[in-house]
Amino acid sequence: MDWKNMDKTRTTLDQWITLQAVVDYGGFAQAAEVLHKTQSSISYTISKLEQVLDIEIFVVEKRRAVLTSQGEALLALSREVTNKAIALEIAAKLITKKINNKIKIVIDSLYNSDDLLNKIGVLIKSRKDYDVELTKKSFNREEIFSFKEFDLLISHHYIGSLNPIFMGEVDAILVTEPNHYLQRCTQNEMESKLKITPHILLSSIFQEKTKSHQIVKVTNTEIAIKLIRNSVGYSWLPKNIVHELMDSNVLKEVKNDIYNTKYQFYMYKNKGPVINNIVINYLFND
Q1: Is residue 4 very low, low, confident or very high in pLDDT (cuts 50, 70, 90)?
Q2: Residues 6 or more apart from 111 whose CB is under 8 A from it?
Q3: How far apart (Å, rounded) are the C-alpha atoms in residues 242 and 252?
Q4: Cβ count near 259 (within 10 Å)
Q5: Where would I find the beta strands (DSSP E) of the chain?
Q6: Structure pTM?
């Protein structure tokens, strides 16, 4: 540690957190709302950071603040700093309270997590110093920003500013119950029939694909499957989740040449409490 240069550190954690908020939430006004500050305060903080570092972090393009290449590099480095600062505070609390580390994992309901659950089981048995809080749910892209604390989050939504880690992709197939009238449609009829059929929607990424006149939003695949089996409508579901139901003729794919779609899944980590690398190795390395 170079103690002689400690007094030369002129930036603050607040400045770096403000920078991240401007990027993550899409602008100065949005960051101000989330951080409970005025927009002028946010602008001043960023301006002061640029002045101290003698670097242009943002440029204005079409009335929108866009990171410069230097700003992008600083953003990535700042996340490491703020995450370590949060980790230090959490470690201090754990030492004081003498409690276990807690791992908070949020999993997209569309993600087939059997393998991950098996690895979590191994982690639980092997590491008694970790408590695990596991949530499986459906959420839209905007909700990811609202989650205050998680260690790992798996979603099919891509958010570049949160440093996503690609985890793989699965074919999304259009399914109904076997006797549904969509099964008898010709390809020429398909698009118009989909528009008048209730769309059982699990993800907003599919809402514009068929533009159905009636949307039925559901929170998990179990509800979607029950509605489909009752001939309520159709849904786009991950093939690896419904393949057994298709094999047993409970559900049936609607053949179409209009769409070729996949669910792509991404992992986000360390937005709140910072998880130890050894835990990530347990869950995601063979």
Answers
A1: low
A2: 154, 155, 156, 265
A3: 9
A4: 15
A5: 58-61, 64-67, 101-108, 130-137, 152-155, 165-176, 199-201, 215-217, 235-238, 252-253, 261-269
A6: 0.62
**Beta partners for residue 261, in sequence order:** 172
pLDDT of 165-204, one tens digit each?
888 899 999 999 999 999 999 988 998 999 999 999 988 7
In the three-class reduction of DSSP (H, G, I as helix; E, B as strand; rest coil), residue 48 is classed as helix
Give the DSSP H/E element, type plus range, for residue 78: helix 69-97
Residue 163: φ, ψ to 5°: 55, 60
Which pLDDT belongs to residue 159?
Answer: 85
**Structure token pair of residue 95:** 């030492």
User: What is the torsional sign of CA 90, 92, 96, 100?
Assistant: positive
| Six-digit token string for 282 | 């347990």
Instruction: Answer for the pair 23, 163: CB distance below 8 angstroms, yes or no.
Output: no
Taking phi over 0 as left and psi of -120 to 50 as alpha, with beta for the rest, 31 belongs to alpha
